[in-house]
## 1
Amino acid sequence: MSKVYNFSAGPSVFPKSVLEQAKEELLDWQGSGMSVMEMSHRGKHFSIIAEELESDLRSLMAVPDNYKVLFLQGGASAQFSLVPQNILNGKTKACYVQTGAWSEKAVSDAKNYCDVLVSASSEDSHYTTIPDESDWVIDPHAAYLHYTSNETIHGVEFQKAPDANGLTLISDMSSNILSRKIDVGQHGLIYAGTQKNMGPAGVTVVIVRDDLIGNASKTTPAVFDYAEQAKSQSMLNTPATYNWYLVGLVLKWLKAQGGVEAMEQLNIAKAAKLYQAIDQSSLYSNPVAAPYRSRMNVPFNLQDTSLDQQFLIAAEANGLFELRGHRLVGGMRASIYNAMPEAGVLTLIDFMAEFERTH
Ligand SMILES: *Cc1c(COP(=O)(O)O)cnc(C)c1O
């Protein structure tokens, strides 16, 4: 098989060496005589995997001791409902910043549980910007302020966590977790599906401050009650064991790359090169205001959209896969998560220049 680069928004590219290690260990995990898939989640082998998973994530993100780290199921989408069920704590209102399709969904699900105040929205700009923080409307009686740190579909990213004006700050970090340094302590809760930047689909990470849990609404299923799962080390139900293992391997790979700081520098360089190539061309353009452009998901349009199909076919012929934009916005999108090597971005840039030259 010739070399291919996968620009999928999620599930997405894996570090090659991690896949090789998983293959190596598939039938016999470290001399145990068993595949990780076959192990009891309460057995001595899997306990090691589970403990290292949590401690590696804690050290990579510098998670303070008064935070629980949970590994749940249901995806980030389930969290759209579970956050209000767990965190309202008897309050009836929550604030949401709406910066794209994912925060729209979070707003829509939260409305089943409380009054939602949309503190700010960039819908009018078709989600190509982030409203200035000084214009946000924040209700001091709300239980929390929710924002989506990276809008995967629109390619819009917060360059730093916003000021929650005294409210508990909550973030959906599904598509940029571990790609840049963030201050966990500034947040009450962070959640992320693993299939963008951390591993395969099937695990949802929830990092939550101790004092916020233990008051879930009465109708919250036990497996979705953060306090119950925290008490059971996320094993109230049988966890997605093999996926935990794979996420754990990705975290060890990330540590070996130099951790989040080193990865952030690489991500800055990769994104800068791609945006520069787009901005300098007369065929391609990116609609997002420069200060809010995502380092992870780079949408771009061809000036002549009748060339879209040809572009995608030619890209695949050159080993560049999954560049079609999300159906909501059309055009193209290159997702360049941690595991996308710089060589992949450079190959894409060369291909785009060649396509422009010949069309
Ligand atoms: C992918 C994504 C989701 C949805 O994740 P699921 O695992 O499919 O539920 C939610 N939020 C953001 C920002 C995403 O990128």
Note: The first helix runs from residue 16 to 25.
## 2
Amino acid sequence: MLHVQALIPVALSTLFRISAYLFLQVIPSPILAIVLPIAFSAWIIALWMLPSPSERKEESDGKAHPTRTATVAPFHYHSFGRLIEAQVYVESEDIVLNILLSLPSSSRRVRWVTNAINIALFLAAAEFLCTPFLDSASDIIFTRVGAVYPDNVKIVARYPPIDDITQSIRIIWREAPKSGAQEISWHDGPLFNFDENRDWVDVVRIKGLWPNSHYEYSLATTNGTLLPYPSTPIKFHTFPDPRLPSGNKFSFLVSSCMTTNFPYLPFQGRRIKGYDLLSNLLYPKDSAYNSTTDTDVAASKTLTKERSMLPEFLLFLGDFIYADVPIYTGSTLEDYRRLYRRNYQSSSFRKIYERLPIFHAYDDHEIINNYAGDGDDLKPPFPNASDAFEIYNANPNYDSIHESHYYYDFRYGDSAFFVMDTRRYRSSATDDLSARVMLGDAQLAAFYNWLSRANDTAVFKFVVTSVPFTTLWGHDAATDSWAGFPAERTSLLQAMHSVPNVIILSGDRHEFAAIEYNHDSLHTVREFSTSPLSMFYIPLYRTLKMQGAEVVTRIKHRLNMTNEGPEYITVEEQIPAENVFKYIPSGNYKWSTIDVDTTDLEMPVLRLKLTVDGKTAYSYTLNGTPIKLHTSTALGVFVSTGIKDMFNKIGIHPSKWF
Ligand SMILES: *[C@@H]1O[C@H](CO)[C@@H](O)[C@H](O)[C@H]1NC(C)=O
Ligand SMILES: *[C@@H]1O[C@H](CO)[C@@H](O)[C@H](O)[C@H]1NC(C)=O
Ligand SMILES: *[C@@H]1O[C@H](CO)[C@@H](O)[C@H](O)[C@H]1NC(C)=O
Ligand SMILES: *[C@@H]1O[C@H](CO)[C@@H](O)[C@H](O)[C@H]1NC(C)=O
Ligand SMILES: *[C@@H]1O[C@H](CO)[C@@H](O)[C@H](O)[C@H]1NC(C)=O
């Protein structure tokens, strides 16, 4: 039986290597996280219990360098003999193949390399698995801009006590100095209240700002001494006054799903490559970003031009931490908070969050896979998971219209956004499908209210949902996405069809898809689902159907040439109600850039550009339906600030006069 036994370490080693490759480069699956240590231990035990055949031979005839014949000899009489003989032959001819297949070898050096590869792979997997537990990032200091309004912004910062001394820290802010202009003095902003109960994180508001204006802020002690961090002031741009009828031209980014160091590289535990790619594209030269030190007028002009094309914010649609991938790190407050700190510690992510406001939604992996809250805020592990999400990502978001909830809406000029919470109120998957709800009563009412307000006060309406709205994705999306909530989904879609220019933005599937929802007579709704920003995608296995079974009938008027001359005829056209018009599944690093241009109200335009692995993979232009806007008192009053915005547009800067 010697030969069969000799194959056991070969098989175990190969199983281990394939699992390690899949785990570190393709998908960091929890199943592989279990298979890996088992396969590795079994391989070690097998090696230890079964001395390799060549060693037996070595021992028996005492030769340091056994010949090929000697190696093959013990197997000759067996039915597997030919196979083994072939392998040993391969060994002597092709060392690389021998090492790759971990075949038994007579060469000590080859055996050593084979074993070293497995040990290195095991250590790599261990590093990848253990870093989230070991790297606590407890000293991390950071600040970023959260919600941006026309007249105020939310600023979040974390400043744990340095040398155990807590000090009062305040914001100082000013208008961003223009090149060549003299130094503008700082205004004292609000004081932070850093508290261990909130993991030394706090959110404050800078109020009394002008709309559509550039500012910068820094952090200082109460006596006005600048703190070492941030080393250069953080810049931000207030949103335009939504009451101005002039239209807007701006862009923003949308994506979801990120984790550190995947696909894995050794000793890169803090890297999030998707953000490295993004910052290289947005801010190609660090110098182009430091406008304060820039005195060259020509350079500053190109800078302003570049800046006007830069995105105004990033919408991040959840799976910001992977609390349970590859393995669940635990359900305590500290377990969840540590994962957020680790992300903010990443210098890849820092290059983005210090320059770009980020508005967050969460999804299941901020809590646990495919979480459904049933509206029960005490259902574990929701309380601890939501505490960490709230501190790091939700408090800096726009306020919800219902206090201490996570759904919210906001506006950028004449574009309106509603960001849903698809986890806290959703019914469990075990319930009867027709009775399942995703949003819960209060959120559903808030959504309908927002939709009808936005109907004629906003040109584009962005409905933001972490999980896809389409029913076309299979696998677990059939119950975890909107497909598993058919009754609620149908009524939402019906309402959205009645509103022109509705765009659904989603993430979650680690693929990109563009879907249109057609109606017999009402408006077409479109969905763009973009992910992952920096995480795995699944090669080869595809679960998206290209269209749904349901069809709608469109009446079209066509010109027909008859003998009596041209005449209009009506043609009925059957088209799918739900139709995928672009599908790009591959790519570890994806985001969509959405350009909105409503400066010509007769022809509002939306352009989408999908970037995959740093390259433009798809572009799409949508000519929106023209809208006659009604200004609404619900938008808040910015009349006086609106005047300044008008002055700014014609190049007069009233701040110089005040
Ligand atoms: C301000 O306070 C810091 C410590 O908080 C101290 O080092 C510095 O000397 C003080 N500066 C002035 C001008 O009082
Ligand atoms: C720009 O700022 C970065 C740090 O944010 C600094 O390393 C770099 O030297 C600055 N470049 C210029 C030209 O000032
Ligand atoms: C939540 O965190 C607290 C404090 O860390 C801990 O005592 C509690 O057991 C955690 N709850 C769960 C369900 O793990
Ligand atoms: C939007 O406006 C149209 C036209 O006034 C109306 O028919 C439709 O019901 C409105 N939709 C919603 C959701 O308010
Ligand atoms: C278009 O006109 C031709 C005669 O020129 C006629 O035979 C045909 O049926 C018409 N098509 C439709 C769809 O009415």
Note: The first helix runs from residue 2 to 26.
## 3
Amino acid sequence: MPKFLAFSPALVKEFTHFMGHVKLHIPGPVEVSEKTFRAFCTPMIGHRGQGFKDLYAKIQPQLQQLLSTKQLVYISTSSAWGMMEGALRNLVARKVLNCMCGAFSDKWFDVSKRCGKDAEALQVPWGSPIRAADVDKKLATGQFDALTVIHNETSTGVMSPIVEIAALKKKYPDVMFIVDSVSSMSGVPLKFDELGIDVLLAGTQKAFALPPGTAIFVCSPAALAKAATMKDRGYYFDLVEFQKNAEQNMTPSTPSIGHVFALESKLQDIFAEGLEARYARHRRTNQMTRDWAAKHGFTLFPEKGFESITLTCVSNGARPGGRVVDVPKLQKLVKDQGFLIDGGYGKIKGTTFRISNMGDETEATMGQLFAAMDTAMKGL
Ligand SMILES: *Cc1c(COP(=O)(O)O)cnc(C)c1O
């Protein structure tokens, strides 16, 4: 550890503050470890210097392994929405199909229109997944040259069957498949080249458990070729610029360099644990959450068989049957014990609540949360 980190009174104060904070179990941003924060605070370097190039070159193969891709993986200094909007601006020439099943995926339709794109909604009820057969029917009309789909709809806790949906790409090679995996990337396997999709993106503050402010994404050669033909795709999110710069181990503009240091540290953690072990840990901690809900008489909000593995959306009256409690009171009683859980998002606020098991959570840390939640339930 560099000396200044060990001895600076300011940092001692910072970490004391860190110890006493309310721990995040909301589905993003999630809890950031001390190790990650230390990496984030590495002294600054220039983004065109050899130090940065070496750093990016070092993490590139790990990012490629994580996403099972031969393509270069890019780093964008923006929240996920930056790249979500960027993907539309780079890839939609005719009309985009926005697959909608919750707050984030619904919003993508609005964003498409705000970008001046011709867009159509494929809306299913909140709690349901996007099904490949419905997507197929829409694409068969031949109207679309792009679609957006969210793998893990964070607002409803629904994981859509991405392998089935991605399999349609073979039938519609000219349609750009844009996939948001903001709250699933690194928590569940996502094999980019095998899926055959065109864009896969995530923000760092969800399953990666880094601070918010950076997006990680990858594009197919077809997406890069299409982007090159697009007028008015802008500069900041120009996919062609990302590729050109990544070939030199750089980003188009000055990135949040702290995030790249933090990502280097996180990738060390990820590969020390092993990908399969990481995925298995998420499955176990997620099962613990479902068990906690069942133990207290709650049902889950998602349609059976499509529940997320990185977070749990518990029904609190949104579905018939199951227990109903005062969610703000539950949140307060849990918060008083040092943990923040979410009280539901958008139109299902209060009739659901959500618990995240993303990032570094283990059976031990989830156990601490559930002990606090058990105590809170007694106080309701
Ligand atoms: C959090 C989230 C977003 C938005 O991410 P920002 O970082 O706020 O831009 C988009 N999609 C999904 C599925 C999310 O969970």
Note: DSSP finds 15 helices and 14 strands in the chain.
## 4
Amino acid sequence: MTLETAPWASPTARDRMARVASQLGAPTPEAVAGTVQRALRAHARQYDTEGIVLYAGTNVMSSAARAVTDPQVGERPSMGWPGEKYQSGLDHLDVLEVLAPSLMCRLLGARFAEVRSHSATMANLAVYTALAEPGDTIAVLPERAGGHTSHHAVGAPGVRGLRVVDLPYDAGALDVDLAELGPFLERERPRLVVIGASLLLFPHDVAAIAERAHAAGALLLYDASHMAGLVAAGRFQRPLAEGADVLTFSTYKSFGGPPGGVVATDDPAIAERVSAAVFPGLTANYDAARLAPLAVTAAEILADDGAYADRCTAAARTLAEALEREGFAVAGAARGYTASHHVALDVAGLGGGRAAMDRLAAAGIYLSAIGLPWQAPGEPDRGLRLGTQEVVRRGFGADDLRRTAALMGDVLLRGAAPGPIRKTAVHLRREIAHRAG
Ligand SMILES: *Cc1c(COP(=O)(O)O)cnc(C)c1O
């Protein structure tokens, strides 16, 4: 008996799932374990060992963080505040629940940090739950400007029953259109303004946006999911100090920790409401196992004094310059390409983001397509987004980044077949791993 996983999915997805389903073995524990092990081994080789990962929404944890990761702890629900747990006998785990948020507060210079959300999506939903009622309006970045699914009606705000409107956006400034913002907020009267994009080359003008939001009676949420590693290191920008009321982020992207979400604020009333929304509102077992590597990662960022963040942004500029020399249309050229670890290419003339991404994947270079602020409504994503947070951890230096840019040029600009390029990419990874020891 073969059940179709998702008969409502696209033809492309259904084809792929049908092909995978046809290769599954018997449903015995041994066969299933074998199937899973083969898949994980092949994945680890293709992606972790041989891949050049420029996908901005991922990272690799440090070996110290990995060393304290014990999945079994996550199988022990430890619910409620230390001292009044629903369960008994778990008091040693209380350390994790005090250590992780207190390190996070130090790192962010915030009074309160809620670390129990399983993801930034859930952290955002907790903020919507705490600060808005069904039927309220929130104003968010348009998708073509990097507004995330968890800001849009199809995602978490829809679950909360919120009305979602797009903020006016200035594609030239790569930020919210400040001239339009005041009148827009007066008209729409949102409860919450959400900024912080999935592609962010330059800081938002948080102070100016906060001033206008507050004047219109709205609170400002800055979603630093992608920027968290920089923000936590005191780089890029300090959203709370600049005027945002709430900060959320993913802990597994530039932050470099385990998957999870954080909500930080200086406002005790907001903190209390968010806390109740996270637990018991949106989680039961919030997975204490995550908190150990999260705490170690936070301590590493604290001790590192911004060095990793600086390497990531320097690498992004090196990569952007090299890609421009190859002949790519690099976004933000007039302003030095980027002030973060992100780089964006406009590949509309090369078949669009999706086609370029697939061609690079065949060459062992992994990243994602993304919308760009100047694309027309309904136009498929015309951009490629690159992030340097993983390659920096893997030991890529300036020369390796230039070689990577050249491989991308070979594949996308000079018509090289991806297969042979993949061999060169794997060789480059081996060389760098060997050098890093
Ligand atoms: C990636 C991302 C998220 C979602 O993060 P998860 O932890 O995977 O839920 C939320 N907001 C923004 C801006 C993101 O880029």
Note: The chain has a mean pLDDT of 97.
